[in-house]
Amino acid sequence: MSTPASLQAVDHAYAEQHRWKSAETALLQAIDLAPKSWAAHQGAASFYYSRADYAKSRRHYQEVVRLTPDNGQALNALGYLEYLGGDIAAAVASYAKSADLGERRNPCPQKAKSGQTTPAQSRLFVQFLPLSNLGELYLESRDYERAEQYLQASIRCNENWHTPWGLLGETYLARGRGESARLYFLKAKEHALSYLEVTSRNAATTAYLAGFLARLGETRAAETQLQRALDIRSDNPRTLARCGEVLFMLGRQGEAETLLARAVKAGFPLRVLRLKPGLVNLRDQDWSRIVGAAPSADRFPQALCAARLARTSSIA
Q1: Model confidence over 118-142: pLDDT tens digits?
Q2: DSSP conformational letter for 305
Q3: What is the DSSP letter of 71?
Q4: pLDDT, tens digit, 9 for 90 and up, residues 151-172
Q5: Who is most buried in 121, 213, 288, 294, counting CB within 10 A?
Q6: Which pTM does this prediction carry?
Q7: Domain holding 38: CATH number?
Q8: What is the DSSP letter of 307?
């Protein structure tokens, strides 16, 4: 007799064979058998996310959170999907709750400048992933002070994760603090390389590393890592989007537009793509070429529109 667990195992087998329809059928059967199983919904959410069906993934993560309200990882994932959907208020709430759960379970034991941590300050020392995501959101909204606050808190929780270091580099670059930005891009590069020593075929980290190298002026190394990321996951919308951003940083706009068009076609939201720090200098006519029409459907909230950063592809 089939059980939710056995059906999820079947799903994994089908997914490894790229038999996506069969994998989806197995997942939905698992949910039919156990509609209150958060693990079954988690499996479906992860599956749809991997297929860039972000709306369906979001619905299943909502169900995971309903069934397990204290699931910080699911809340963080839900926040990202809300962000992709343009629901910024919901994303902030999900990230904040995820971070708060992390702080209550595993507080980051850091002290304030005075040597003591006040209750208000201690709320910042929370899980590093939702904090980093909040920092990225505020970076893209041009709220650089708040972006720095959350990204520094993320680093205090886990100084070995590359993403907040790189985002702080982007924050300082946007504020004209090139030397500070360089130091943070160097740390981001260091931690990304360390992570890839353990998990060498991680397309996301490899693509991020390419961006850090581009910002540092290490063009040849950036191009090598960019190609490696595409060799690993050339079908992934996030990988395509990040690699397109890196190509634009490197001054290869025509190639960048090709990859960005592929990212949009594969399901990466245009409204989010337009806010990426390395892409804010693309003009409306450039985006028109990318999507094949004027981007009039971009309804991202005005309060979170990206800055028109100075055209600086390197701080070397």
Answers
A1: 333 333 334 799 999 999 999 999 9
A2: P
A3: -
A4: 999 999 899 999 999 999 999 9
A5: 213
A6: 0.80
A7: 1.25.40.10
A8: P
